[in-house]
């Protein structure tokens, strides 16, 4: 079917071009016969123009129809000798013919071409002979039919109709029963008509009644009011506005558009025809180059452009090749530099030829939205901006489907029905905004709607139901991650999609589509307020920057867009930093466990990795590392890996060498090897060799990477080193936000204010049968008093012997916070410092200090029972987390000890070489060198093997305790019981 | 025997080459050019019969190791190793690696016999290996030329990878 149409188009174009050429010749010939024109010649020209018009009308090229129609009218008058073929007239026709030519050259945009001027110019001649056409049109009436083809009983003059249809898009026949409207609906007919007039115009009206005698039965026979109403509104909106049933609204088919000449000249009342001609002539002059000289655009076959692109690409390669040669000859260098510049420019220009404005895509959207809003009975408006942004043709084409899909989704699942919108206080008309902009070498497209957004709870349960995620997985995810779950393949197959409050239909298809062209997609949603979809698209596909890596002496290219960062491990790190979680090698990258894939291993094995294969590899490298660590001999001095990303997922890809970044021309993978999923294509390097482009997603699939490792679920054998501390955020008074590190809180208890008992100035509450002291922050800190509600919360700290709780009005959330606290801006006793969390200044509570303020005698136990601290004893504190390091230093210095704090075992060993210490307090789980290794060294190899040492750790299993004892720690303290630690310190120092 | 190139007595030119001392022929009309194999990029995960990719004047070609595909096993590349590149109608840019390029041989279609029907004393089992690709056999003056259907070569490689 499509082929037939495109064949038709080709035929039409070929034929029309021939006609245009002959019309051009004949018009010039006609000009010489201004006195006695050859009627045969005029008829020939007329036939030529007429046949273009006929075919164009059939194929829907309305612009061409409009232009040819006016030319035809003028020629018709010439044939009747109403007007002579004088040079001004011929000139106008020639100009028209030229414009026709350029419309044919760019047929797809011909409808949007501005032909107002030429129509006006031709029209002025037509008008000059007494509005013959106009008069005729005024006299002739058009038979109107509804969309079913039935005639309706309204006669409208052709002229009037044309004028109306140039102003409004739709014509309806509205049937009102005036009696009913007033009686049943209580609407005054007059106000109704006034409303309708605001949005359109009545072309014609008539009243019908069955009443024979107005006086007698007028009041109870229906009084029908028929109105022919022209408007831009859609049926659905008319229904609402006119308070009519759809049965009472008939859409009238537009009469064939061939009759609809632009009104610009029909309306015109002719002045002196010659003035008019002069006017339009002078008007016409400035646009001469774009009309007659239609040469600033040329239509080129895409195939030819592709070819040119390819050759330009090759030239880039030849240039690269040349540039790699080193020659000291000055002339050579100069020429090669010039070649370099010219090639770059050539490449850029060729790329530009393929660029098309997003407009081409955006212009299709209003129509989609219009159709959907009618179908769904919703009011939706779409606005696009940034349509001048240009994208590579291929990308633009590939983007069409995903974008239409997103718009459909926004209409279908996003925007609510008008009555619902009104109910929740939104404007009845939903609004979609599509915005494109250029940033950092990428095109960004943002699709916002003000619909109902997405309900994370529903998405969560659907994802669990569909087996995509476990309860555990989703509970660790933030809202944004949850929303983006809808992009997972398989999510859309969840039953009853419309229940998912938002999108869901085939979002994975959208994602795949966008990612295929190297783009990415992100979704944000605010329940009740709307959804934002964010697309990032590369400008062009053909030439992309790639990281060139080397494995087993072969080079591979990884698209830069897939690379997050490059990391390099040296010497013993090569062996110590890569660990094993289950059968997956991992690297601790900041707060995440990064699965590690060794490219050499992946390339070695053509079959996808089984669990066994993966664990074998992990074992081999694990054992190798163990041997190396044991013998303290590290044969491999360097390990390179790239942190690659696939959407939100990351993994580390180990390679032998990283060569550098190069712009490469991408060739698709050879058809026969398409199934090799680990490659995405080939390219030719500067030296002429072929290099394979890696598909990082395919690699991960092949290697069976377990990504769940860093989605919050951590293997029990591995502990994450967290440079950030999770804190509990809460409020007390109306002003301040407080934080307490989560490990220091045992639990949060909900209490009723009325259950608090007072004993003197103190307040107690019964929790689990224990009278618990309540501590109000505003009594000890300079903060606003607690906002009392009936429901309050009590924070019960960990490691405090006596029962007490901190009263809070509300727990805000848990948050991950920087543990490097600010102690300069604001400090008072009872605080550890401040930090900015979620844009608010947050006070970090020092629980121990607070207790000292509240109940100074609580800690007397220690002071009585433990030996008094010996001042100026030198303590070595080994702790990787800044937060605990600072906290502990504070506590220990408070007792009068001299504290040296370092971040890991390795640094501690160095410090021990410089200085003599009396006691070591060491964390176990630390980067670079952990506490166990450190202690083994201290006991076996240091100058002070007998030094007292306390292990201080959050690890709390029997196994950990045993190992701590085995390596030689004297004591074991859990993070963080200040009292127990201080007792332990003073005891050990007195030993 | 299918004859696509005209009457039975019409002459046909074959480009001959040798693999493991055996003579093979491919229609000259299928061949674009012959090129020495300088350096190539091996493709991990591809089957053994895929030698790798080469760049011939800016275009990436897949090279099939015909020796392996026909079941003769590996042999290292030497000075006489060449690649035969095919015209586009045979398949997407590819070539075959052969041990040795021979002459162009002219023969009539009628002299070519289908592989199955042949009653020559060929008891060579290796023929079975390449019966998938052999279009026929032609007896030359002092040896037999196995005529390969170049269309089948790339198809086979693709099949193997789609498994």
Descriptive tags:
heterodimer; A: alpha+beta; Four Helix Bundle (Hemerythrin (Met), subunit A); 6-stranded mixed sheet; flat; B: 163 residues; mainly beta; OB fold (Dihydrolipoamide Acetyltransferase, E2P); 5-stranded mixed sheet; 3 helices; disordered N terminus
How does this model look, in words?
Chain A is of the alpha+beta class. Chain A folds into seven domains: 2-130 and 272-291, Up-down Bundle (Four Helix Bundle (Hemerythrin (Met), subunit A)), CATH 1.20.120.160; 138-265, no CATH class; 302-354; 359-538, Heat Shock Protein 90 (2-Layer Sandwich); 543-710, SH3 Domains (SH3 type barrels), CATH 2.30.30; 724-858, CheA-289, Domain 4 (OB fold (Dihydrolipoamide Acetyltransferase, E2P)), CATH 2.40.50; 866-990, Rossmann fold. In chain A, β30 and β31 form a beta hairpin. In chain A, α15 packs antiparallel against α16 (330-353). Chain A is flat. The model of chain A is unreliable at 256-295, 493-505 and 709-722 (pLDDT under 50). By secondary structure, chain B is mainly β. Chain B has one domain: Beta Barrel (OB fold (Dihydrolipoamide Acetyltransferase, E2P)), CATH 2.40.50.180. Chain B is 13% helix and 41% strand. Chain B has three helices and eleven strands; from the N terminus they run βββββαββββαββα. A six-stranded mixed sheet of chain B has the order 8-1-2-11-10-9, with no helix packed on it. Chain B is globular. Residues 1-6 of chain B have low confidence and may be disordered. Chains A and B meet through β24 and β25 of A and β4 and α3 of B.
């Amino acid at each position: 079917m499509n082929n037939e149409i495109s064949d038709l188009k080709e035929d039409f174009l070929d034929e029309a071009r021939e006609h245009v050429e002959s019309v051009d010749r004949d018009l010039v010939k006609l000009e010489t016969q201004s006195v006695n024109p050859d009627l045969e010649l005029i008829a020939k020209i007329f036939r030529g123009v007429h046949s273009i018009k006929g075919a164009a009308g059939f194929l829907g090229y309305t612009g061409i129809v409009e232009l040819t129609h006016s030319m035809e009218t003028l020629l018709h008058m010439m044939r009747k000798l109403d007007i002579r073929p004088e040079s001004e007239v011929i000139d106008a026709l020639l100009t028209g013919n030229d414009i026709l030519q350029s419309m044919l050259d760019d047929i797809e945009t011909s409808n949007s071409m501005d032909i107002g001027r030429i129509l006006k110019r031709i029209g002025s001649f037509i008008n000059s002979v007494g509005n013959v056409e106009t008069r005729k049109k005024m006299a002739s009436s058009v038979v109107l039919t509804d969309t079913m083809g039935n005639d309706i009983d309204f006669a409208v003059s052709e002229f009037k109709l044309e004028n109306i249809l140039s102003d409004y898009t739709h014509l309806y026949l509205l049937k009102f029963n005036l009696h009913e409207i007033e009686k049943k609906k209580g609407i005054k007919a007059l106000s109704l008509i006034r409303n309708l007039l605001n949005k359109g115009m009545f072309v014609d009206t008539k009243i019908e009644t069955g009443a024979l005698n107005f006086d007698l039965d007028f009041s109870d026979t229906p009084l029908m009011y028929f109105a022919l109403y022209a408007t831009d509104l859609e049926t659905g909106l008319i229904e609402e506005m006119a308070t009519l049933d759809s049965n009472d609204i008939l859409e009238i088919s537009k009469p064939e558009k061939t009759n609809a000449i632009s009104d610009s000249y029909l309306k015109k009342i002719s002045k002196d025809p010659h003035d008019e001609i002069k006017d339009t002539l002078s008007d016409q002059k400035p646009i001469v180059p774009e009309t007659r000289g239609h040469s600033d655009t040329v239509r080129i076959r895409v195939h030819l452009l592709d070819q040119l692109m390819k050759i330009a690409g090759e030239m880039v390669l030849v240039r690269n090749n040349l540039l790699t040669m080193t020659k000291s000859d000055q002339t050579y260098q100069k020429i090669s530099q010039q070649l370099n510049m010219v090639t770059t420019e050539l490449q850029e220009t060729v790329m530009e030829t393929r660029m098309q404005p997003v407009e081409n895509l955006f212009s299709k959207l209003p129509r989609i939205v219009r159709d959907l809003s009618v179908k769904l009975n919703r009011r939706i408006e779409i606005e696009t901006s940034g349509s001048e942004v240009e994208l590579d043709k291929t990308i633009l084409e590939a983007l069409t489907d995903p974008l239409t899909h997103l718009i459909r989704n926004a209409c279908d699942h996003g925007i609510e029905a008008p009555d619902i919108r009104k109910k929740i206080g939104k404007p009845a008309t939903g609004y979609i905004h599509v915005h494109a902009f250029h940033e950092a070498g990428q095109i960004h497209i943002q699709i916002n709607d003000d619909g109902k957004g997405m309900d994370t709870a529903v998405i969560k349960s659907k994802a669990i139901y569909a087996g995509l995620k476990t309860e555990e997985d989703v509970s660790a995810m933030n809202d944004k991650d949850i929303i983006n779950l809808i992009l997972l393949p398989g999510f859309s197959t969840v039953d009853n999609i419309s229940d998912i409050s938002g999108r869901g239909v085939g979002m994975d298809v959208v994602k795949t589509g966008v990612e295929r062209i190297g783009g990415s997609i992100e979704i944000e949603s605010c329940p009740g307020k709307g959804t934002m979809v964010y697309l990032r698209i590369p400008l062009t596909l053909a030439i992309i920057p790639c990281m060139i890596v080397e494995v087993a002496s072969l080079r591979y290219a990884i698209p830069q867009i897939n690379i997050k960062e490059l990391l390099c491990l040296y010497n013993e790190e090569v062996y110590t930093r890569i660990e094993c979680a289950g059968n997956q090698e991992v690297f601790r990258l900041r707060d995440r466990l990064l699965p590690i894939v060794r490219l050499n291993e992946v390339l070695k094995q053509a079959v996808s990795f089984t669990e066994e294969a993966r664990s074998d590899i992990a074992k081999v490298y694990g054992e190798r590392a163990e041997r190396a660590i044991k013998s303290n001999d590290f044969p491999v001095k360097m390990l390179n890996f790239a942190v690659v990303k696939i959407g939100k997922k990351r993994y580390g890809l180990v390679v032998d060498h990283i060569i550098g970044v190069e712009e490469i021309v991408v060739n698709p993978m050879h058809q026969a090897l398409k199934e090799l999923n680990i490659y995405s294509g080939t390219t030719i390097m500067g030296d002429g060799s072929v290099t394979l482009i890696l598909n990082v997603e395919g690699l991960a699939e092949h290697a069976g990477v377990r990504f769940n490792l860093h989605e919050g679920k951590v293997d029990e054998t591995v502990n994450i080193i967290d440079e950030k501390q999770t804190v509990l955020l809460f409020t007390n008074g109306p002003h301040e936000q407080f934080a307490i590190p989560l490990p220091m809180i045992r639990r949060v208890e909900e209490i009723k204010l009325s259950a608090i008992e007072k004993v003197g100035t103190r307040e107690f509450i019964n929790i689990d049968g224990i009278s618990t002291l309540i501590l109000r922050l505003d009594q000890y800190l300079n903060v606003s008093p607690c906002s009392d509600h009936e429901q309050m919360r009590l924070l019960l700290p960990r490691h405090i012997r006596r029962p007490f709780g901190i009263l809070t009005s509300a727990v805000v959330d848990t948050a991950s916070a920087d543990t490097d606290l600010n102690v300069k801006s604001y400090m008072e006793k009872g605080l550890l410092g401040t930090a900015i969390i979620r844009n608010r200044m947050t006070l970090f509570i020092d629980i121990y200090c607070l207790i000292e303020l509240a109940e100074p005698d609580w800690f007397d136990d220690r002071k009585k029972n433990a030996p008094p601290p010996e001042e100026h004893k030198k303590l070595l504190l080994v702790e990787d987390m800044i937060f605990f390091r600072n906290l502990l230093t504070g506590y220990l210095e408070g007792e009068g000890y001299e504290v040296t704090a370092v971040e890991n075992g390795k640094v501690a060993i160095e410090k021990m070489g410089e200085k003599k210490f009396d006691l070591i307090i060491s964390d176990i789980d630390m980067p670079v060198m952990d506490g166990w290794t450190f202690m083994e060294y201290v006991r076996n190899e240091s100058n002070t093997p007998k030094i007292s040492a306390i292990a201080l750790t959050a690890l709390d299993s029997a196994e950990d305790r045993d190992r701590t004892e085995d390596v030689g720690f004297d004591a074991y303290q859990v993070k963080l019981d200040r009292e127990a630690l201080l007792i332990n310190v003073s005891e050990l120092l007195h030993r | 025997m299918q004859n696509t190139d005209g009457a039975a007595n019409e002459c046909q030119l074959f480009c001959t080459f040798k693999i493991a001392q055996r003579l093979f022929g491919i229609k000259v009309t299928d061949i674009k050019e012959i090129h020495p194999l300088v350096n190539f990029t091996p493709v991990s995960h591809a089957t053994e019969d895929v030698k790798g990719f080469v760049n011939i004047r800016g275009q990436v070609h897949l090279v099939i190791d015909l020796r392996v595909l026909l079941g003769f096993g590996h042999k290292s590349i030497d000075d006489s190793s060449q690649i035969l590149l095919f015209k586009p109608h045979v398949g997407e840019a590819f070539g075959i690696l052969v041990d040795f390029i021979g002459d162009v041989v002219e023969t009539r279609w009628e002299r070519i016999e289908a592989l199955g029907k042949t009653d020559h004393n060929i008891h060579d089992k290796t023929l079975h290996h390449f019966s998938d690709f052999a279009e026929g056999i032609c007896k030359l003056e002092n040896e037999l030329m196995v005529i390969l259907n170049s269309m089948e070569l790339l198809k086979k490689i693709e099949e193997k990878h789609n498994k």
